[in-house]
Design goal:
about 400 residues; alpha/beta; Rossmann fold; 8-stranded mixed sheet; two-stranded antiparallel sheet; 14 helices; globular; transit peptide; phospholipase A1 activity
């Protein structure tokens, strides 16, 4: 049975609100392209789909749960794609769908950019059915830039600085905990929606990690090219910026994850951070922060959909040294996964002729001077939308849409 998932179309557009996060509103792995999975047209209606997903018998992971969370970098599970892993990817993708569905996109509404539902009913109001999870905290992200007045007038968009971006949920159901083999914490993050978030996305140059985000054990370390750990300027800004009324996304995550580790750290526990687009980038930063901040952190896994690049080679190295596992779901036709910056592969340069090596070295130096040399992180599961009849259009927005990513077959 094929169960493609249809999610609400994301409207990537976007008054200042008071922030209340609980109210309504070491094996080093290299990135590898695994398999190309063509989509097939769905014959299921949305209503039928919701019913089937609610009745779906998810696999019992039991003692193998760490394999599916990437402890061995998903070795033997990606090519061909393991059915159990496929269903887990779809399941986590649904939590990102909830983040989109719960967001108030109505720019004329006084509650624009907040969560549309009470915290305790977000999952049920998003037609998730019985998940076994309970949302424990709403999350907000704050932009560190201000929209110039002339642009605000021209676009006639609300100049919103802090907006609801997702939530933290924890598995509470005994049967679901038994199926999963552990108690799971989910952090789900949506993609870009507000005008200021778009401006943050455009701040594509790399910047050094601040001290409070850096790995203290490797503070000041540099890679073989003399580079420190650096990440995209705009993503970092959205992660650490705060206002007088709203804590940063970083502070919210640290507070809630610290509380959950203290409460449940004596039992098998996992943290799964899942996000789409901007949410995928913030998921990487969140995972890095959690594994750096909490020395007793459980296995932290990122399942990302259509994520852009986040940091440089040194950042990737530190992320992997911290034990974070990252599975990036990538559509070959999605240009967002190929930005920002450049990826300069240096591992095989010694095997090239001297003149070619010199050209690559020159190019690397020039691009690095512009702070635009990025590195892809984790393992990559590559999809293709070229041969599908499901997609009537193959423009940039369609290829990047979450529902395109979640149109996988069982």
């Amino acid at each position: 049975m094929r169960l493609p998932i249809k999610v609400p179309t994301q409207i990537h557009t976007s008054p200042t609100t008071i922030c209340n996060s609980n109210t309504t509103f070491s094996h080093t792995t290299t990135t590898s392209t695994i398999s190309t999975l063509p989509f097939k047209k769905s014959k299921l209606s949305l209503g039928r789909l919701k019913r089937d997903m609610g009745q779906c018998n998810y696999p019992k992971l039991g003692h193998k749960w760490m394999q599916y969370q990437g402890i061995n970098h998903w070795e033997g599970l990606l090519d061909p794609l393991d059915d159990n892993l496929r269903r887990e990817i779809l399941r986590y993708g649904q939590y990102v769908e909830v983040a989109y569905h719960s967001f108030d996109f109505d720019t004329s509404s006084p509650t624009y950019a907040t969560c549309r539902f009470p915290k305790d009913s977000i999952l049920t109001m998003s037609a998730m059915g019985k998940t076994g999870y309970r949302i424990t905290k709403n999350l907000r992200a704050t932009c560190g830039v201000q929209l110039p007045e002339w642009i605000a007038k021209m676009t006639q968009m609300p100049n919103i600085q802090s907006s609801w971006i997702g939530y933290v949920a924890i598995c509470q159901d005994k049967e679901e905990i038994a199926r999963l083999g552990r108690r799971d914490v989910v952090i789900a993050l949506r993609g870009t929606t507000t005008c200021l978030e778009w401006f943050e996305n455009l701040r594509a140059t790399l910047t050094k990690l601040p001290y409070h985000l850096n790995n203290n054990d490797n503070d000041g370390d540099e890679d073989k090219y003399g580079s420190s750990a650096m990440v995209e300027n705009g993503f970092l800004s959205l992660y650490v910026s705060k206002t007088t009324t709203c804590p940063s996304l970083q502070d919210m995550l640290r507070e809630e994850i610290g509380r959950l580790i203290q409460s449940y750290g004596d039992e098998p526990l996992s943290i799964t951070i899942t996000g789409h687009s901007l949410g995928a980038a913030l998921a990487i930063l969140g995972a890095y922060d959690i594994t750096t901040t909490f020395k007793n952190a459980p296995l932290v896994t990122v399942i990302s959909f259509g994520g852009p690049r986040v940091g440089n080679e040194r950042f990737r190295s530190q992320l992997e040294q911290n034990g974070t596992r990252v599975l990036r779901i990538v559509n070959s036709d999605d240009v967002i996964t190929r930005v920002p910056g450049f990826v300069v592969k240096n591992d095989d340069m010694e095997n090239r002729r001297d003149n070619v090596t010199n050209i690559h070295s020159w190019f690397h130096k020039r691009v690095e001077d512009m702070q635009l040399v990025y590195a892809d992180v984790g393992q990559e599961l590559r999809l293709s939308s070229k041969e599908t009849s499901y997609l009537k259009k193959r423009d940039l927005a369609t290829c990047h849409d979450l529902k395109t990513y979640l149109h996988l077959e069982y």
